[in-house]
Amino acid sequence: MTFGKVIWTWYFLALVGFHWYSAAAPAKALIKSVPGYDDSFPSKHYGGYVTVDKDHGRFLYYYFVTSQGNPAKDPVVLWLNGGPGCSSFDGFIYEHGPFNFEARNNSETLPKLHLNPHAWSKVSSIIYLDSPSGVGFSYSRTENDYNTGDFQTAKDTHTFLLKWFEEYPEFLSNPFFIAGESFAGIYVPTLASEVSKGITAGVKPVLNFKGYMVGNGVTDPKFDGNALVPFVHGMGLISDDLFQEAKNACKDNYWNSNDVNCDTKIEEINKLVSRINIYDILEPCYHDTAIQEVIVRKENLPESFKQLGETGKPHPVRRRIFGHAWPLRAPVLDGNVPTWPQLSESVPCFVNTVSYILGLLYTTRV
């Protein structure tokens, strides 16, 4: 795969301050400023690449935010977005990162930032990782590496962690957690298994692994799909009568039933929930049209949950257009990695079975 001149933002290179933080920190990793934010950071920020396969030229990109509390003692959390194919800068930009967007003035070329009062970095140090290779700014010089799967992703991420903690040994004694959402319902337990096996086998450095957490986790299309109708009933979004009618018609198989009566009931439910935000039923529903088309294609959701709708004007922090403008419209430098995609369609991941994932949920309890 050839990498020529591509967009490369101040966010990652032009505004990176290159100097040593301490003897333990990697060279040229300290980030001193980002576009749209003029004040000093409340904690140290670092960014860079870790080589997970030297022979293939496979590299994973990370952005590390140290804790605003006590970074020497506070937990270190690895954050993984899902997809598969979503950059973990989704979490950094839209969810629990250190910054929020402000409402944009039309005369401004880039959105302004302010500190997020609910940032996870207030109480922990967060590693935002683009994984697997081909997602976000992570890449490989071997194009076949983009045909990957969950097991290989877990192995690569484990390799990343071992090398990352070698570069940041001052955090090795901190409690370590793995967290993620969506397809990370598969990424997280498979990675937790690799980490646990490595600890048992005495792999160095020994990670102080304490646990994991998953939000809105994907495990298996059939199992997850069949849970959605009972969920909307439990949340009071459909009536008891309609739920019972659907239950009788579908015989608890809402995912791939061939029954006409079941399809009819699912369509009724679809009309009732078509304008509900499937990720948070209490939040307004806004998603960029292009991104939504990718989500529908990739997540194989049943028809009753493919409609997202738009139920209100979003707050600036949730505006997808801000997220695209921020990393992509800043002044650029020449680079040798691909342009940042929010959700990569070039990573054909092979999904492993739910039985394996469920087994990991029990065997990796810590």
TrEMBL record:
An MF annotation (GO) of this entry: serine-type carboxypeptidase activity
InterPro entries membership: AB_hydrolase_fold, Peptidase_S10
GO biological process, one term: proteolysis
Signal peptide: 1-24
Record keywords: Carboxypeptidase, Disulfide bond, Glycoprotein, Hydrolase, Protease, Signal
Gene3D superfamilies, A to Z: alpha/beta hydrolase
Highest taxon in the source lineage: Eukaryota
UniProt family annotation: Belongs to the peptidase S10 family.
Protein name: Carboxypeptidase
